[in-house]
Amino acid sequence: MDSIGFASHDHTRCITSGLTAVDSYCAQNGLKFTAVRRRVLEILLQQHRALGAYEILDYLRREGLGSQPPVAYRALDFLVKHGFVHKIERLNAFIACTHPGSPHTPVFMICRECTSVAEAQREPMQGQLGAVARAAGFLIERTVVEAEGLCPKCQDLPE
């Protein structure tokens, strides 16, 4: 078992189910899941960590799929737009979504020591933010919540 965020899981199954979900979503919605888009998602699923666009471009370059930054950025733009990948603002990096193709509001927990990232879900219209938005007559369409701290492994390391 490998680690996804902070929990163990079957890594091979995770990659396969992620690609299958995106394949299915794209087919049902008439979206083009090109070879480069697919490979970028595969890289993120295989690495199970947040990667910068230039790190992704290095993989693509080595595999002969493109060497110019727009290649990676166009693929990432598509994947983010459709919710298959999330941008981690704090790290200026990208991570594969743990619930591709299903509507949800992610919350990211980022370890300040090892930079591992775990995705959880929350409802933005609940809690204080939702109350403030309702009072102002504001409709929340997108939120980005990133919490920084220590993952379980790094909490257990001697100082």
Fold topology:
Elements: E1 2-4, E2 7-9, H1 11-29, H2 35-47, H3 53-62, H4 69-81, E3 85-88, E4 93-96, E5 106-111, E6 117-121, H5 127-136, E7 145-149, H6 152-155
Parallel strand pairs: 5-7
Antiparallel strand pairs: 1-2, 3-4, 5-6
Helix pairs in contact: 1-2, 2-4, 3-4
Architecture overview:
- It is a single chain.
- This protein is α+β, with helices and mostly antiparallel strands and 159 residues long.
- The protein has one domain: Arc Repressor Mutant, subunit A (Orthogonal Bundle).
- The chain is 43% helix and 19% strand.
- It is built from six helices and seven strands, in the order E-E-H-H-H-H-E-E-E-E-H-E-H.
- A three-stranded mixed β-sheet has the order 6-5-7, with no helix packed on it. The protein has a two-stranded antiparallel sheet with strand order 1-2.
- A hairpin with a 4-residue loop joins strand 3 and strand 4.
- The two termini are 27 Å apart.
Mean pLDDT: 87
Q: Which shape, going by the Cα principal axes?
A: globular
Give the ordered list of helices and strands: EEHHHHEEEEHEH
Please name the CATH architecture: Orthogonal Bundle
Work out the number of β strands.
7
The total tally of domains equals 1
- Could you estimate the helical fraction of the residues in percent? 40-55%
Largest sheet: 3 strands, mixed
Radius of gyration: 17 Å
Order the strands across the largest sheet as they lie in space: 6-5-7
Structural class call reads alpha+beta
Output the CATH topology: Arc Repressor Mutant, subunit A
* Terminus-to-terminus distance: 27 Å
What would CATH call the homologous superfamily? Winged helix-like DNA-binding domain superfamily/Winged helix DNA-binding domain
